[in-house]
Amino acid sequence: MAQPANVGELLSMLDSPTLGVRNDVTAVFKENLYSDRGPMLVNTLVDYYLETNSQPVLHILTTLQEPHDKHLLDKINEYVGKAATRLSILLLLGHVVRLQPSWKHKLSQAPLLPTLLKCLKMDTDVVVLTTGVLVLITMLPMIPQSGKQHLLDFFDIFGRLSSWCLKKPGHVTEIYLVHLHASVYALFHRLYGMYPCNFVSFLRSHYSMKENLETFEEVVKPMMEHVRIHPELVTGSKDHELDPRRWKKLETHDVVIECAKISLDPTEASYEDGYSVSQPLCTRFPHRPADITTSPYVDTQNSYGNATSTPYSTSRPMLFSTPGQLAHSLSFPSTRPLPEPPQATLWSPSVVCGMTTPPTSPGNVLPDLSHPYSKVFGTTGGKGTPLGTPATSPPPAPLCHSDDYMHISLPQVAATHPRKEERTESTRPCLHRQPHLPNDRGLEELASTKGSVTLSDLPGFLGNLALEEDSIEKDKEEAAISKELSEITTAEAEPVVPRGGFDSPFYRDSLSGSQRKTHSAASGTQGSSANPEPLHSSLDKLGPDTPKQAFTPIDLPCGRADTSLAGDRDRQTSLETNILTPSPCKIPPRTGVDFGSGKPPPYDHLFEVALPKTACHFVSKKTEELLKKAKGNPEEDSTPSTSPVEVLDRLIQQGADAHSKELSKLSLPSKSVDWTHFGGSPPSDEIRTLRDQLLLLHNQLLYERFKRQQHALRNRRLLRKVIRAAALEEHNAAMKDQLKLQEKDIQIWKMSLQKEQARYSQLQEQRDTMVTHLHSQIRQLQHDREEFYNQSQELQTKLEDCRNMIAELRVELKKANNKVCHTELLLSQVSQKLSNSESVQQQMEFLNRQLLVLGEVNELYLEQLQNKHSDTTKEVEMMKAAYRKELEKNRSHVLQQNQRLDTSQKRILELESHLAKKDHLLLEQKKYLEDVKAQARGQLQAAESRYEAQKRITQVFELEILDLYSKLEKDGLLQKLQEEKAEAAEAAEERLDCCNDGCLDSTEGHNEEASGHNGETKTPRPGGTRGSSGGRGAAGGGSSNSSSELSTPEKPPSQRAGPFSRREATMGEPSPGIPTVGSLPSSKSFLGMRARELFRNKSESQCDEDGTATCSLSESLKTELGKDSGVEAKTSLNLDGPHPSPPSLDSVGQLRIMDYNEAHHEHS
Amino acid sequence: MTEDSQRNFRSVYYEKMGFRGVEEKKSLEILLKDDPLGILPPHHESHAQVMMYRKDQYCDVLHALKVIRFISDATPQVEVYLRMYQLESGKLPRSPSFPLEPEDEVFLAIAKAMEEMVKDSVDCYWIIRCFVNQLNNKYRDSLPQLPKALEQYLNLEDSRLLNHLKSCSAVSKLPYDLWFKRCFAGCLPESSLQRVWDKVVSGSCKILVFVAVEILLTFKLKVMALNSAEKITKFLENIPRDSSDAVVSKAIDLWHKHCGTPVHSA
Question: What's this model's pTM, rounded to 2 decimal places?
Fold first, then answer.
């Protein structure tokens, strides 16, 4: 913390002349500021600065860091409010703002801004206003978003100040108005560039009012002529302009450049990005050259350039060289201006004015130079007032009237009323000769810079440039790139020539002829002190644009002098037609005039000799007039008025010229003396005015410097882009080279491929021929083979034939063999026959012999016979006959026998067949028998079944009968018992009858007959059947049979006996039932006894056996037979012996059977 | 087979007729000799005589029964048949009022069915008589085996149904008397019954099993729905008659399936 006293000391120490102390103190302050956050120190510093204008303090204040900005702004705000300190504090603010502190964005929020605006609206001091406006203009790009709040304020200020320019309220010095006008002009540009829609709508509303109409006509409209239509007017809107997003991506310098882009004012405009191509060229170029040609002011410039060769000339190319720049915007020469900003820092208005720095040595100045200067001042003074423009108010300058300068004053007129003046004041013949100083200078600069920076020097420049870059890394990169570029440029200097050159007027020149080019170049370099060599080099650059004329640079130095004059006039006339066209080629007339003006270049004197000044003037005027007539003033309409900036520039220069001139004339050391000497008694406020003016100029300069810095920033960026583009181009070139190499490779490969293909085709052909050859061989061989095959076929057929023949022969052979065999056989047979015949012959012989012998014998016998009797023959004959007969007999007998045999055989056959028939018959018979048997069996079975049925029926009937009997007997039981006691036998007979009667009921005839007979004879048969109960002795034999018959069918009765007996049992007591059968004879009789015994036995022992029972029964019978024999003598007599008591036995048997059955049934 | 058929195209026809081989004469003879019931001998010549005998026998028996007043004109024909049969077989009870034996009931049922089939009373009587005799003699041993066979085939055809029956313990309570002793007399309508009895007469009592199986299968849903053996039995004793024809057809198919051709099963 610095104590107040301490601070004061330190502040005083700040201004100490010792550099070290000053630095130390500055460091101390900065340290304090760093540690202290309070406003006090800043306030103190501001106060101190206002008091002393101390530069170190200013330095400290402008480099204040973040926390102090508020204090500073507060302090400034405070002082801005006070009228006394307003100017100085505005200057301070300008310093601060121009350095673009890091906290610049806070400006829009700070209370300072409204205060400043209010001040600008209220204040009446032109100096303050101008300063404030410039500060505001500087601030606007930094705080574009503030427009939303203060836009109307800005516009109000513009409206107020623009009207000021015209109305000149109060006692404002007119020279101030020039400055004010310039600043208003700048404000106009800024506002129009940043907020076109709003601004235009403001203009529309504000200047539609009648009271403002004049201001518009006089001030605003000329300004508007220096701007193009803003694109935002088409695409944007009022709201869009104020949108913070729009400004976010733009930096301060971007905004500045944006504003500059829409300017048509060559001093303001920036031609980037194609804005420049169409309009500027068409509108500005046509008139500029003409102006230059006719303008004597060129002399001034030339002389000025020659005399000073100050950085001033080089500090402007950014603006002035633009027409040329345009052409080279993308090429390397376009980087030319960049090295110069550093130099610009050295420049100061004082230098221009020649106030502080010593004037250039007169030795440098050409003799003619002083002359134009005087002219300038003279004209400004003379012409300014009648026009009524601010520019026409000349400062108290020496009045050196010259005809030449008369015209020079015209630009000021044009600045306000460009064409109107011309129309109304036709008396001014040279109106059209508006000296476009900047343009002229631009050309001049163009030439000079071209001379200074040649292509060969470019790498060096680039290197320097790279060194100046902030970023070291980038520096390195770009240095590398630039080195590369240098190599490339040195290697291939010609092709890298700017493309833009085609568009440039120079390019036209180069096309139209080398001479013209030389003229233009010469005219461009007239005023410059540069040597012809750089110029040539620059021309060299241009030349290569058209590769056809690549030789022209060589011709230029020599041909320039020789041909230029000769062809000048012709060209002028011939090119007038060209001038009529809107093409930018207007240089030739200028060159001619330039030559005529007789200018410093070393070879100028030649022109002067060849073409006198007057002639030159005459010619130029004539051409101008002709031009005007031909054009019908088209270019004047399009020509914009001189901008206030130019007016200001001119004013300054005039002032400087006047000053230096006076100085040189009078060589007076002091100003006061000057003034007294000049105008006698100088006005009291003259000095103050001058100071103010100086101040204003300073402000203006600072503003311009600010702009320049912005441009520099932008240029650096552009350069970077350019370098990058160049690098990319190089890369492209390298790639192209590679491509070429590769294409070459491809070519080589293609060649080799073709070779290979050729070889291949050759080989193919060879192969084909081989193949065809082989094919033919194959065909030949095949043919041969076929032939052979045919031969073999033939041979085979032959072989076949031979085989056939052989087979045939074999067959024949066989046949022959057969024949041979046959013949052999025949032979053997024949031989056998032969032998036989031989033997036969022998036999014959033998027989013959025998015959002979026999014959002899016969003869002998004959003889003997003859000798004997002839009866022997009869006997023999008889015998023969007998034999014959016998033979015949035998034969017939044999025949008979044979016949008999046949018949017997036939008979046998017959018999055999008969036998077979018989057998068959027998079989059939057997079968039939079987059939019959079966049939009979069937019938028999049927009959049997019938019989069975009959038997069943009979049984049923019997049962029924028995049943009935039982019923009957039951009824007549007692009666019978009594009867039986009397005559048992009779009763038995009766019962038999009764039984027979019962039988009659059921059965047919047999039983009836049987019952009918009833006798002893009949009892054995049918009577026996029914004589079951026959207890009679007489019928005993028959009854035994019947009993046996009856006893055999045991089961059926027993089965029925079951239920029957049961029925009996159910009916009543069994005991009485049994007696009905069992005790049928009598209870006292033997049978009854036996029955009782049996029943008792049965009841006692139920399981007695049949056999034993019968045995015992028979035994008992036998034993008792003897007893009863006597008793029943009659019965035994009637019956057979062995059957004494069949009825009893029968009844007993039946009873027993029944009993047994009953028992059996019970068992089952 | 193809060769066989090529050799004699009639073989199919022969098989249809029940000839086993192509030696049709022999087969025919065998067939002709066959006397399934024994009512008439195979010999046609004796037919008239035998038939006369049969008729006489019938008349005799009928007369005898009438004589002993066992039957009257009012006696139903079926009972007449029964009495005649009883008489012929010596089983005639002493009185008509005696209660009937179970076998008599069987006879009555069969007779009733047969009466529907045969118009002539003599024929009818003889057929009934021989049919019953066949059942009693020829099939005396095989009839008791049929329930087991039924179980076996039912298991093959539908084991679930058998399981259900077993679970209801209805297997032993099925109407075997109705099915196998009466040969479905009174269970199936005569038209269907005829076809079954044809097989039975021809010598296959197994057809009865298949008819029973088929009845169970046909009324499976119903049987499955019933849970008690009594209900099942009751239902089976009174099965609806309308589907009997289909049942019999299916049963014959089943019989063919399980026992092959009728010749084989015979």
Answer: 0.35
Q: Which amino acid is at A777?
A: Q
Q: Give the pLDDT score at A101.
A: 80
ipTM of predicted complex: 0.75
Report B:93-122 residues touching A (Cβ under 8 A).
93-94, 98
Q: Torsion angle, CA of A1000/A1004/A1007/A1013, rounded to 10 degrees?
A: 90
CA distance B162 to B172: 12
Q: Does position A146 have pLDDT exceeding 80, yes or no? A: no
Whether B43 sits inside 8 A of A946 (CB atoms) is no
Query: What are the helix and strand counts (H, E) for chain B?
Result: 16, 0
3-state secondary structure of A102: coil
Length of chain A: 1164
Of the listed ranges A885-899, A1079-1093, B97-111, the one predicted with least confidence: A1079-1093
pLDDT at residue A1110, rounded to an integer = 43
Contact criterion met (CB below 8 Å) for A1063 and B94 = yes
DSSP characters for A43-108?
HHHHHHHHHH--HHHHHHHHT--HHHHHHHHHHHHHHHHSHHHHHHHHHHHHHHHHT--TTGGGGG
Is the distance from CB of A352 to CB of A387 less than 8 angstroms? no
Mutation for A interface: B53, B54, B61, most A CBs within 10 A: B53
Written as one letter, the residue type at B91 is K
What residues in B contact A1051, CB-CB < 8 Å?
A: 90
State whether residue B175 is helix, strand or coil: coil
Q: What is the pLDDT of residue A728?
A: 93
What is the token pair recorded at A344?
């610009």
Note the pLDDT tens digit of each residue in A790-847.
999 999 999 999 999 999 999 989 888 888 888 888 888 888 888 888 888 888 888 8
- Between B101 and A769, the higher pLDDT residue: A769
Q: Which of A345, A518, A551, A524 is nearest to A450 (CA)?
A: A524
Positive/negative CA dihedral, B136, B141, B147, B150: negative
Question: Comparing C-alpha atoms, which of B124, B138, B142 is closest to residue B55?
Answer: B124
Q: How many other CB atoms are there within 10 angstroms of residue A971's CB atom?
A: 10
Q: How far apart are the first and last CA of chain A?
A: 157
Q: Using an 8 Å CB-CB cutoff, list chain A residues near B68.
A: 956-957, 960
Residue indicated by tokens 């700017």? A498
Q: In the 3-class helix/strand/coil scheme, how is A579-590 assigned residue by residue?
A: HHCCCCCCHHHH
Structural contact between residues A290 and A589, judged by C-beta atoms closer than 8 angstroms: yes
Q: Which helix (H) or strand (E) holds A648?
A: helix A644-666
Burial of A801 (0-12, 13-18, 19+ CB in 10 A): exposed
Inter-chain residue contact B41 with A948, CB threshold 8 Å: no
Largest CA distance in chain B: 68
Written as one string, the DSSP assignment of A113-129 is HHHHHHHHHH---HHHH
Asked if residue A414 lies in contact with residue A434, where contact means CB atoms within 8 angstroms, the answer is: yes
